Amino acid sequence: MAVDITLLFRASVKTVKTRNKALGVAVGGGVEGSRDELFRRSPRPKDDFSSRAREVISHIGKLRDFLLEHRKNYINAYSHVMSEYGRMTDTERDQIDQDAQTFMRTCSEAIQQLRTQAHKGIHSQQVKEHRTAVLDFTEDYLKRVCKLYSEQRAIRVKRVVDKKRLSKLEPEPNTKTRESMSSEKVSQSPSKDPEEKPVPEEYPEKVPVEAQPELGSWGDGKGEDELSPEEIQMFEQENQRLIGEMNSLFDEVRQIEGKVVEITRLQEIFTEKVLQQEAEIDNIHQLVVGATENIKEGNEDIREAIKNNAGFRVWVLFFLVMCSFSLLFLDCRKNAVSRSSGQMTCAPCGFLCA
Amino acid sequence: MVGAKMAGAAAASIRERQTVALKRMLNFNVPHVKNSTGEPVWKVLIYDRFGQDIISPLLSVKELRDMGITLHLLLHSDRDPIPDVPAVYFIMPTEENIDRICQDLRNQLYESYYLNFISAISRSKLEDIANAALAASAVTQVAKVFDQYLNFITLEDDMFVLCNQNKELVSYRAINRPDITDTEMETVMDTIVDSLFCFFVTLGAVPIIRCSRGTAAEMVAVKLDKKLRENLRDARNSLFTGDTLGAGQFSFQRPLLVLIDRNIDLATPLHHTWTYQALVHDVLDFHLNRVNLEESSGMENSPAGARPKRKNKKSYDLTPVDKFWQKHKGSPFPEVAESVQQELESYRAQEDEVKRLKSIMGLEGEDEGAISMLSDNTAKLTSAVSSLPELLEKKRLIDLHTNVATAVLEHIKARKLDVYFEYEEKIMSKTTLDKSLLDIISDPDAGTPEDKMRLFLIYYISAQQAPSEADLEQYKKALTDAGCNLNPLQYIKQWKAFAKMASAPTSYGNTTTKPMGLLSRVMNTGSQFVMEGVKNLVLKQQNLPVTRILDNLMEMKSNPETDDYRYFDPKMLRGNDSSVPRNKNPFQEAIVFVVGGGNYIEYQNLVDYIKGKQGKHILYGCSELFNATQFIKQLSQLGQK
After folding, report:
1. Which keywords fit this entry according to its UniProt record (chain B) (predicted)?
2. Tag placement on chain B: N or C end, fewer CB within 10 Å?
């Protein structure tokens, strides 16, 4: 339980002020304290970065409000029973989608820009950290608002897909049910979603068309009254069979629907993970490239060093051999000079010193 | 307030209360509401070492981020000006801190300042800040000033410690020094009472206080009673009214505060232990819920480049989120080892599941006709992928506990701690000893000299009459041969003499330990922790003296030990301190506070005790938390004088 002593603090400020006045101490302000503060406020370096960040946040806030405002209408589609105020046409919805997307794109671009600019001209580690964190918060906020948008979009897309799929299923059962009683079809349709209202609407149209030839056939078959109970039974059996088939198809459709939804979710998760790894893989790629280059250079350096080493050795050997030869030569010459009176040959370099 | 919504006892999770208070403070002292589409507000958190100790067990860096904190810095570090950002300060109102704040104000480091003082700030210091603010023309920048009353550190849901930074000041040694002056004692008592007061403000309840006579605990009780009474009288500023007290008032029950002095029981801090949390505290470097392990990189041949072998330091946080820790922190060590094994196996099974799915999915791509299998596996795959983060977290925890438990096990094996534990249990329960004390002390490879000292001290403390001079000389010689320092013994002798005068020696209850012997050893060899030679000891419930005292007081049992405890009730109009408790009903909540230091063994004992009782809560607190090593150091310092 914390105690708010702000008022106490302000009271102390007043006490100190009066005390200082009484003591006649100029406290770098005194009477002009308040004015000084005002003056001090404006020349204070208004931080460009944070004001821009705040702008971006207010934009995102506007987007969020916009989405929330129209959310109810957006989602409450398809109910024909709704009053005129609630209805939203598809074009309006598309418009909203597009606007939201462009908005989100501009916001994320602005954040990227801020990120590149954030680290320019700042030498303090703490300020850099702070700015990075601020940008992270802003991005997170944007993501949350985008989630709002994508949720309602997902609902809308799902409905459209459902509708399409159901309308596709319609021709098949129609051919099979030509011989069945219309009443059973009509009784089944109210059990399905109200979305399928357009679909069953077509059955009653077709059935009266069928009913007439059937009436005709019945009218002709009055002489076959004993067979008609059997026919009725057969028809009933067929009805049962068809109902069973219809139900199983329906169930399968439901299952597939569920699977597809799960697959989409998985896809989302995977894409997220892959995107995350992209940055890391880029990093690793750079490091590897750098490493290979370093190794290449290192190899070359080693080769050169070996060559130099070898060359050096060769020179040293050559020098030594030359030295030894010159020593021998000199020695010979000495010997030859010392024996100039006597014989002119010396053993090792025989014919050389003539 | 979230606190009021907690059903039942006012003593429910002190940790949650403190966390809520901290979060509120970080949210500019406005109650924190989680809003998923709220705008981010960023701020900077400045704390001093006290604040750091308080915040670190409760909030992780990630949680701080979630609250919008971009930077968290120490008060006395070099801080650069960060324009246009509000700063939240969480500091103690000491002279240096106040000076530093004034400096910050003068340097105009931040845009606005929210000052939160851990305990109440005095009027004069407030005026100092006001002075500096005026000088820097920054009065409007100081947005809010608060007294947070959070001057204690919560380590567990029901355990708190008074301080970590200046524990020298309130240590056992400081309180029991023979050369302590009155003023110094006053300071120490004031510090303790201040923290206890903050604790009760956060708890939102006024307790009934009981303490023993003639000890430091009594002094604390008198001062605390006075402080609470003054605060309650002051109807305008009373901290105990308001809706945080709602829950406490409805329960009609006030908690019982039992103030105990460390001198009642000196054997427990020296005791070798066998439960997980207490072992980690005893053997490894563990404080503020953080374990620091040193892992030496193995005995590799150093390459020709001859780099010195580096020891990796690793630190782990043992937090309430860690389910394994919560479940097993009080279990005996062999159980912990087995559970880690089990967790590891279940984790491996789950991992295999996921891998199997992967191979099935690999087959899927080639075989068109197996689409029916796909439908079943998609669901499995989804559940596997969504459970992947959980699996990774589980793996991390298992690794953590494997490392910690292995480190502990190494220590146990090296020092033969199980032998000590068994022996001490036997000493403390006064059953017959099968091995003579002298043998163990002279045994060269059973434990460090410190372990032997501990064993001997426990023997000395719990012996009914002191051993004869000749025996004592023998022991002393054996101890010095083993390399022990004999100073603690000096002190214990003095203490024993004093304690004998004061009251009857306390007994430690009956306990038996059953070494499970060969059969369990065979069973255990299958496990990764091959605990050969480490006996699988089974702890039987025993009540330490602290638990017994609490039991008597809580259940209003009559017992010569606790009958003459003093009774304080700050809410009573007349400040008489009769020993007759007005309230005859047993208490539902109790807070045990040990003046002079506590440890995890007592805490575990209390937890076990209260587990058996329905609907009762106990909080355990101490002025400082030490393990046996630190306690021996203090005793030897005391013995040197």
Report:
1. Cytoplasm, Membrane, Protein transport, Transport
2. C
